Please model this.
Amino acid sequence: MNRVLAIDFGASSGRAIIGEYDGDKITLKEIHRFSNDPVNLGGTMYWDFLRLFHEIKQSLIRSKEYGKVDSLAIDTWGVDFGLIDKKGRLLENPVHYRDRRTNGMVGASEEFISPDRLYELTGIQTMEINSAFQLLSLVKNRRELIKRADKLLMMPDLFAFFLGAKKVAEMSIASTTQLFEADSKEWSDECINSLGIERHLFPEIVNSGTVIGTLSPEICEELDIEPMKIIATCGHDTQSAMVSVPAKEKDFAFLSCGTWSLLGTELDSPVINKSSAELNVSNETGYGGKTSFLKNIIGLWLIQESRRQWMREGKQYSYMELEEMAKKAEPFKCFIDPDAPEFTPAGDIPERIKQYCEKTGQYVPEDDGEVMRCIYESLALKYRQSIAELEACTGKRFNTLYMVGGGTKDRFLSQLTACSIGRKVYAGPVEATSFGNIAVQLMSIGAIENIGKAREIIARSEVLYEFLPSDKELWDKAYADYLKVTKK
Model:
C-alpha cells in the first residue's frame, strides 16, 4: 500500500486528501477541508497566506491517523506568487489576482513589448490577471518591494518552501505566468527584461514529479510528525486535473470545471499561430512537458459570487436550490458572455447580468431563477464556442468531452453542456485535481509506471456519468442568438 497526501487549494476552498494505492485502485480519503477567503486591507485584496499555511499544518497533523505517508504535494490556482528576501522571509501576503492593481497594465505593457510578440514567445492567453502584468504593476508602482526581494515563488512552490523544499518553480505553474517560453520550457529573458523585471527573481524550473525536499526538522518537531518527501506535482491545479482525465483516446477534449472553466486538449507541442493568437488560446505546460491547449473561461465564479450577493441580501440559497431554480426557469430568454470584463471583479453579479442584458437589447431577468438559467445556458454555449475554436486551431475533431472537477457534481450543467455541444459528455472524477496530484506523486515514487497507466487506474477508481445530447434544433437556434449577443 502506497499512501500520499495531496493538498489542493482552489480559489474559494482547500482540502487535504490522503490517496491510498493498492496496486489496482486509488482510494481518496478527505481528512481536512477549509474555506479560502481573501482579505481586503488598505485597498488591496490579499490571499490569507498565514491562515492557509496553518491549514496545511492541520492537514499534516490529521494525516498521522492514517499511518506512514510517503510524500506530500501541493497544487493551487495559477498566476499568483509571493516574494521572499535573501533570508527566506515572506515580504508580504501574496496579492489576489482579482486585485485592481493590474488595471491598465495590459495596455501599459505594449510600451515595452508588443502583444503579438508576447504571445509568440509564451503562447499564453492575454489576461490582466497574469503574473507578467502583476509584476509590471510592481515595477511601475512599488519598485522598492522588487528591490527587497530575492526570489519570486509561485503559490504551490511558496507553500512547499516554507515546509522545507528548495526554492524552485515547478514547470506547469511557471507556464501560467506569461513569462515562460512555450517552446524552450525556460523563463523568457526577452519578456522579463522587456518589462523591466529583475531576472534574479526567477528560480530554477523543475519538471512535474520532481522531489524538491523533505519536511523540515522544525515542522516535524512542531507537529510531532515523521519526515516525508515533498514532491512538485503539477502545481497548477488545471494540470493536475488534466492528469486525471479518464480518456483512452489520444485526441480528446476536456473541461476542468470549477471557479474557472478550463476547456482544452492535450498536444505534443504548442500551437502558436495567427488563429490561436486571435482566439486568445493558451499553451500551458502539463505533465511530461505536454502542452495543454486551452481556453480560460470564467466558470462557476458566476454562480458562487451570485450566491454570495444573495446571501448579503439575506437569501440563504444552497447550491442545490440554485440549480433547482434554474431548472424551473424558462429556457433561452437571455444570454451573457461569461468572459465579459464586468463579470471578473467580485460584487453584485446578478445586477451586472441584468445590466448586460438590457445593454444588449435582450429580455432582462426578473427573478433569481432567471438569472441562474441565464448563467447556466451561457456557460454551456460558451463551451460550444470554445470547442469550435479549438478544433479550428488544431484541425482535430473531438467527439467526446470529458468534464472533470467539482463542477461535475452539478448534473444540470453537465446535461446542458452535452445538449449545447451536440456530443457525448463524461463527467468525473469530481476530485480530479486531487486524483492528478496523487497520481503524479505515485509516478514520482515509482508506484505507477506512466501517465497512461495512471489514467486507466483513475478511470476504474471513480464512477463516471454519461450525458447524451438532445433538442439539437433548439440549441442550434440558441447558439446563433448567443453569438449575435456576445459579438455586439
